[in-house]
Fold:
Amino acid sequence: MTISSISQTPERFNMKKKKKHRATAIWDERYAGSDYIYGTEPNRYLKKQLATLPAGRILLAGEGEGRNAVYAAGQGWQVSAFDISREGRKKAMLLADQQGVQIDYRVGELHNMDYEMEQFDVIALIFTHFPEEERANIHKKLTEHLRPGGIIILEAFSKNHIQNQASNPNAGGPKERSMLITPEDLKNDFAGFEILELKETENHLSEGSHHNGFSALVRFTGRKRASAVARH
Structure:
């Protein structure tokens, strides 16, 4: 999921387009098998945070095979989700059918979605990493779809995770250090949010075959103030 800059040369546009097509092909290939590579259980941090909130409307960005969307729907949330992978959506819809829940799962990038402004009570980004030059803009665009008083829940790999990847091929996460996240990145990206939790931590992940082992993480939960968008 990427958002193109408004002004760019044809050469740069074509290069970015090819990069996006490669990314889509990579994720489609990863999700094409029958196994759920990140498992079917929800992310523990998301599960913990949702337990503190009344069910409402939630958007899950970069939702992959649907484990978190299906869990949230089972807890009474009205779930929207999107990802660039059609194979990911197929797996998510199969899981939703098996669990007897409904989710609105779309394929594409954020700027191709027709979500309404301030539509959601919660937006969750669980290991949803973007290119460094596009991350802040995408985060800003996402906040436009969050109502004032709404909550962002984010867990991602920190820059220190590179060390874990070197010793454990199943640790998961982007291999490009620039795509990993620091707490300072999130302070800047979500300026104007009330920080409810922001910390860098280390934990053992056991999420399928691709998030398995000791991990360096950043966790963020923030509440959108009425002026949050204006402050970007």
User: Anything to note?
Assistant: The longest strand covers residues 193-207. The helical segments are 10-31, 44-50, 67-74, 86-99, 132-143, 161-167, 183-189. The chain has a mean pLDDT of 87. The CA atoms of residues 172 and 211 lie 5 Å apart.
